[in-house]
């Protein structure tokens, strides 16, 4: 994305989960647009540079880490203009393993807590910390990464879907609370995307079991389910995030924008 039209030069944008997948592509897009981007991720080292961005090691489920993140960004850049909440986890699990063949792929407290801790609690903690700074500045933008599964549901991914439903609800509620302070809150709901590298053999094994098939039988024929006949590109999601962070989207708040090639009913 070229500099100029979005006017993101010198904007300070934090991207959680920015070291891989959608987060990595969003970081690259924002950096190319001229923003000062901060990668907040458990896999980076604080102070290192990656993909044109400054890194802060952060566990989004830790209040201490999140407070340290906000303080470090303000100390280095003087402000926080936007937060893009992308850090998340998806553990395919059945509500009940009816056949009893793979009990490790049945929902338990650990998998439930882990998904809600990272996907929902992490979003809450990071947003709260950044909004405290945005209130001092007189405005800002929060972009929450959701999923079409939050609206549609997804076989074998009920809790993951529930966390995305929570993201949508938090987005709408926070937008109502913060609009008067010139803080916009919006969500993005991708559908089926190109592989990210996070779709590991272990993930495919779990998902296939919850869908009653073998990993090699997981559908890749998107022409049957996606009107546009292809999967989404990570850069397309990154481009949408960059637009929503910019003032070009200045009247968009309190909503979730689907980016699913027409698959999702919205």
Morphology call: globular
Relative helix content? 25-40%
Which oligomerization state do the chains in this entry correspond to? single chain
Q: Could you give a short account of the major beta sheet?
A: 8 strands, mixed
Global Rg: 18 Å
- SSE series: EHEEEHEHEHHEHHE
Helices and strands: which structural class? alpha/beta
**Percentage of residues in DSSP E strands:** 15-25%
Q: Flag low-confidence runs.
A: none
* Average of the residue pLDDT scores: 91
Secondary structure tally, helices: 7
**Separation of the first and last Cα atoms:** 27 Å
Total strand segments = 8
Q: Strands across the major sheet, in which order?
A: 3-4-2-1-5-6-7-8
In short:
The protein has 266 residues and is an alpha/beta fold. The chain is built from 7 helices and 8 strands; from the N terminus they run βαβββαβαβααβααβ. The two termini are 27 Å apart.
What layout of secondary structure does this protein have?
Elements lengths: L11 E5 L4 H12 L3 E6 L7 E2 L2 E5 L5 H15 L4 E4 L23 H29 L2 E6 L3 H4 L5 H21 L4 E8 L10 H10 L23 H12 L10 E4 L7
Parallel strand pairs: 1-2, 1-5, 2-4, 5-6, 6-7, 7-8
Antiparallel strand pairs: 3-4
């Amino acid at each position: 994305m070229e500099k100029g039209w979005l006017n993101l030069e010198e904007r300070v944008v934090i991207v959680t989960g920015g070291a891989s997948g959608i987060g990595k592509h969003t970081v690259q897009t924002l950096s190319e647009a001229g923003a000062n981007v901060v990668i907040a991720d458990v896999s980076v080292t604080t102070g290192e540079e990656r993909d044109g961005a400054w890194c802060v090691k952060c566990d989004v489920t830790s209040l201490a880490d999140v407070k340290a993140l906000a303080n470090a960004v303000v100390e280095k850049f003087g402000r926080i203009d936007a937060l893009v909440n992308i850090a998340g986890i998806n553990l395919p699990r059945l509500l009940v393993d009816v056949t009893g063949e793979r009990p490790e792929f049945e929902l338990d407290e650990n998998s439930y807590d882990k998904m809600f801790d990272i996907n929902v609690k992490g979003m809450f903690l990071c947003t709260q910390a950044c909004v405290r700074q945005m209130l001092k500045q007189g405005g800002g933008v929060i972009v929450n990464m959701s999923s079409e599964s939050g609206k549609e549901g997804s076989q074998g991914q009920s809790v993951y879907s529930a966390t995305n439903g929570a993201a949508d609800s938090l987005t709408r509620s926070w937008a109502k609370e913060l609009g008067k302070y010139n803080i916009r809150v919006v969500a993005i709901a991708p559908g089926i995307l190109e592989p990210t590298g996070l779709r590991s053999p272990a993930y495919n094994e779990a998902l296939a079991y919850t869908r009653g098939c073998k990993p090699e039988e997981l559908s890749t024929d998107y022409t049957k389910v996606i009107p546009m006949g292809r999967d989404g590109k990570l850069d397309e999601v990154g481009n949408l995030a960059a637009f929503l962070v910019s003032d070009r989207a200045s009247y968009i708040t309190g909503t979730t924008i689907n980016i699913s090639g027409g698959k999702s009913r919205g």
